[in-house]
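Appendix B, Record 12. Input sequence as logged:
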Amino acid sequence: MTAAAGISVASAALGAQTASKAKVLTPPKPADTTASRATAPVAAASAARPALVPQSPVLDSIREVVFRNLLDRDRAGFATLASAFCLGLSTSDFKHADAVADRADPPEAMVRRLASPRAPARRASTCTFAPNASTPRSVTGRALLYSVGAIEMLSSERAEAGAGYNYDGYSAGGFTFSVERTDSVWVVKQWRMEWTAKPNGP
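Logged structural output:
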């Protein structure tokens, strides 16, 4: 073998080795699924899949009275700062922070009854939730999402309903509402905060 041929063979081997190394890819790191941060429960809320939420006039009556309590009493504490009030239905009991839950819109008639000049409510599907987004948003400023979740009928006159809020990824929390039927009207008797997530920042 001549010297030139030896150099050619060595160069080919080196080239093959370099090409082989170039094909080695580092596996992607697993996604951060920590739920203790305020953004975790609804960071991808705009991509949430429609939930198969049980429907009945009784359940809708309970949902409406819980929504009204959340809006009128400002249970999240961000009503004066929110630029939009977005309402959704969920199957979660909201007893602890978890991943993004499937969500559906309340009936349009319910949303219209709940809307007021102070809290112009809208369906959650019309809101975009992306903290500090640089892309155009469906609402300006920060949206306050209220969700009413799983409802447990304790009797024909008593029930417990889970509910949650998310202030556009800045803060989030969960509630349990105890409601009773009085003179054919559902009313909130008690409520308690189940958890709250510390804000990451404005």
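Confidence is low (pLDDT under 50) at residues 7-47.
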